[in-house]
Structures are given as structure tokens and as C-alpha cells.
Design a protein that fits this description.
Layout lengths: L9 H20 L3 H23 L9 H10 L1 H11 L1 E2 L5 E2 L1 H13 L6 H19 L16 H14 L3 E4 L10 E5 L2 E8 L8 H13 L4 E6 L5 H10 L1 E5 L6 H5 L4
Parallel strand pairs: 5-6, 6-7
Antiparallel strand pairs: 1-2, 3-4, 4-5
Helix pairs in contact: 1-2, 3-6, 4-6, 8-9
């Protein structure tokens, strides 16, 4: 029932509200108390209406807010995964968004979203706020950016904890003769050999895929998985598809069983 108001931008309502305020002042100066009360009531009603429609996403605020929200929601899973991969906590406990903002540039280009320069910052702020809330659902999946704050061994245990919370039996091998298996996970009749790669520089490459594939064969696991906090190179993704190795970000571990189904 409110969609008819969508033809007005918030700036229109703001201007109308300003006019009402000026009108109230004029009526007050003219000592027309009854008209002043009516005008005040109309101005208050207009402000409440603007607030309500904006909260419902039916009234754009400096841009096509409702359309932007729908676009962001259509790509919620991909955006949330990329947010977790790219937004880092630095050595001083502050979040760094540089790479995430670069990703939003690619997102707008890929979805053919054309914005005026003044609307880009508004869109990015909306996307960051919405996706940040989705990403915060699993705070355990966030790790610090500084190497000194987490070791590769700590990362293996973090991944194992995520698997246990999802119902897996997860054992961190910690053995030199494990042939590259960092975690051996079991659930029902499934066994998965995982290799954990904690990277803070370049994306994970072919070598990790080859090692995971060999390691799974060595321990007779049903599946081979490489888990990392970083992206994977295109070559690594191609090789993984060829060998049947699953490449995941650690934030995806709670959904590991579902992700394994297409590989079976």
C-alpha cells in the first residue's frame, strides 16, 4: 500500500518539511495559533512518514535504496563470503576495508549497476552495513590479519573447532608423517582430509591442491579439501575441479557436508 510513495525521493519530503517549518514560524509570528497547531501536526506526520518509509526501504534516501537492497540481497551469499575473506582485523584491532571496497567496484561492474559519483559512497556504505551484519553471524570465522597473532597451528585448530560445531569429528593430526593432512574429519560414513593454508599474501596456488589430493589418497579419505583464509588462483581452481578437490574459505566449513554433495 505504500509503494505509491516510492515516486518521491527523501529530498522531496525533506524540502516539504522545511517548507512546513517556515510556514509554522510565519503563522506563529502572525499569531495564528490554530493554524500553527495544524501545520505543526502536519509537519510531524510528514517526518514520521518519511522515517517509516525509509526504514521499510520504500523511500530512497539520496539514491535508489530499495533497488540497491534488493540487488544486495540477491547476491547475499557471495557478498558475505567475500566480506569474510577481504575484511581484515589488523594488528591494532581495527578492521581494514580497502580490499572490500575494491570488491564492491567489481560487484557494481558485474551487476551493471551504474551510479552517479555522489551515490557510490552511499551504496558502498549500505552494502557494507548489510553484508557486515550477515558476516557477523559467525564471529568465530573471523581471524586477525597479523601473522604474529595467529600461527598456522592455531589456524588448524580454529578450522577444527568450526567443524566440531557443525557436527563433525575433527582431529588435528599435528604429525610430520601426515603427508599434508592437517585435519581428518569424519561424519557418519564420510571421511575428509583437509589441508589448512593460512596466507596473508598471494592467493593459494596449485601446490596446495596437489598436496591435498595426494594426502587424501594416503589416508584413504573420501574427499580432499583445501581450506584457507585467502582466495585461490584460477589455475588452482581449474586443477581442483579436475582432481575433485574442494576449495573452501574457513567461514564455509559449517556447510561442508552440503558443499561436498556436488563433488560426490
Amino acid at each position: 500500500m505504500f509503494r505509491g510513495f516510492g515516486i518521491f525521493r527523501a529530498s522531496t519530503w525533506v524540502n516539504l518539511t522545511k517548507f512546513a517549518i517556515v510556514f509554522i514560524v510565519a503563522m506563529n509570528l502572525a499569531r495564528l495559533d490554530r493554524l500553527t497547531g495544524i501545520a505543526a501536526g502536519l509537519a510531524l506526520a510528514a517526518l514520521v512518514l518519511v522515517w517509516l518509509l525509509t526504514r521499510l526501504g520504500l523511500l530512497p534516501v539520496g539514491g535508489d535504496s530499495a533497488e540497491w537492497r534488493r540487488l544486495i540481497r540477491r547476491h547475499d551469499q557471495a557478498l558475505t563470503r567475500r566480506y569474510r575473506q577481504l575484511v581484515r582485523v589488523n594488528a591494532y584491532g581495527a578492521e581494514e576495508f580497502d580490499k572490500w571496497h575494491e570488491e564492491l567496484v567489481r560487484f557494481r561492474a558485474s551487476t551493471k549497476l551504474s551510479l552517479d559519483e555522489k551515490d557510490v559512497a552511499r551504496f558502498d556504505a549500505l552494502a557494507t552495513r548489510m553484508v557486515g551484519k550477515w558476516a557477523a553471524v559467525e564471529p568465530d570465522a573471523r581471524i586477525p590479519d597479523a601473522m604474529e597473532e595467529i600461527s598456522p597451528q592455531d589456524y588448524e585448530h580454529l578450522c577444527a573447532d568450526l567443524l566440531r560445531k557443525a557436527g563433525w569429528e575433527a582431529e588435528v593430526t599435528g604429525q610430520s608423517g601426515d603427508q599434508g593432512v592437517d585435519i581428518l574429519a569424519r561424519r557418519d560414513d564420510l571421511s575428509v582430509a583437509l589441508q589448512c593454508k593460512l596466507y596473508f599474501g598471494n592467493p593459494v596456488g596449485n601446490k596446495a591442491v596437489q598436496e591435498a589430493h595426494a594426502a587424501a589418497g594416503f589416508v584413504d579419505a573420501d574427499y580432499a579439501v583445501v581450506v584457507s583464509n585467502r582466495d585461490f588462483t584460477n589455475a588452482a581452481e581449474q586443477l581442483a575441479r579436475k582432481l575433485g578437490v574442494l576449495l573452501v574459505h574457513h567461514s564455509e566449513l559449517p556447510d561442508l557436508e552440503t558443499m561436498l554433495q556436488p563433488v560426490r
